[in-house]
Amino acid sequence: MKAIGLHRYLPIDHPEALLDVELPQPQASGRDLLVKVEAISVNPVDYKVRSPKDAVEKTPRVLGWDAAGTVAAVGPEVTLFKVGDPVFYAGSITRPGANSEYHLVDERIVGRKPASLDFAHAAALPLTAITAWEALFDRLGVSPQGEDEGRSVLIIGGAGGVGSIGIQLAKQLGKLKVIATASRPASAKWATELGADHIVDHFGDMPAQLKQFGIEQVDYVLIFNDTDTHFPAAAAVVKPQGGICTIVENSKPVEIELLKLKSAAFHWEFMFTRSMFGTPDMIEQHKLLTEVARLVDAGTLRTTVGENLGPINADNVRRAHRMLEEGRAIGKLVLSGF
Asked: Which positions fall inside the Enoyl reductase (ER) domain (predicted)?
């Protein structure tokens, strides 16, 4: 089967950073689905895993943790899906990625593709929807039934992939007042169209900008961009007994003591936790994606595709990695067809 893989971990401009390769088609066993991949999207986790290091892979390592496709075969323990079902999912970071014609994934972290979306538009959603949902509703404890209506959230990185769906979840399900950050006119327009009530520039003085809207503090802060830079501002604007959740790893110690006087909570969100550790509640991601698909088909949520870069090949995947590394992407970058 065709796939995009790597042997060495190289800068993205190196011609061997990602290569078109041929690999054996895997076989489904246990609770695995064998999915014929129709479309993928690319996330920051892809380029972070690919980032330069000394390791060398004897067999090509395949990246990619967002896909939509059709179930081609099922393992003997599968109960949730059958051959021919259209699906979407993010997969597990501990297994080969989905940048391949056929891909194995545990059914407990897979959802049925929204019927109203084609494969490319569906592939944009799984990783970011799971991340934003878990961050907002599981970690921060916001009610997805709107019981916290009127409370406020600052979403740092509003025009990125996670921010794009996070704005919608916070607004449509949480019924929150949403302040999103964006640093360019195009990204500000995008975040506003998705439902943000106010826009601030994360390169500026965020507390001062919030005050211009009459907002001294917010109930929740979601950090979807650069924890090191933005944690101090997040700590300054979060309300007493509020909460901050970040998805971005830090490179220096987080000044958690800034939250002590406020008794404010600090959470990490990593959407691969359930699949990585095989937690007993892995199936919650199947349920989550099922609900996301329902909300998309009902018109409550919309896809977050920013740009379709064309067919799935090494050149186009390298281009997607480069765009994400340079911070030029708005919404999600998708590719479709081999």
From this structure: 12-335
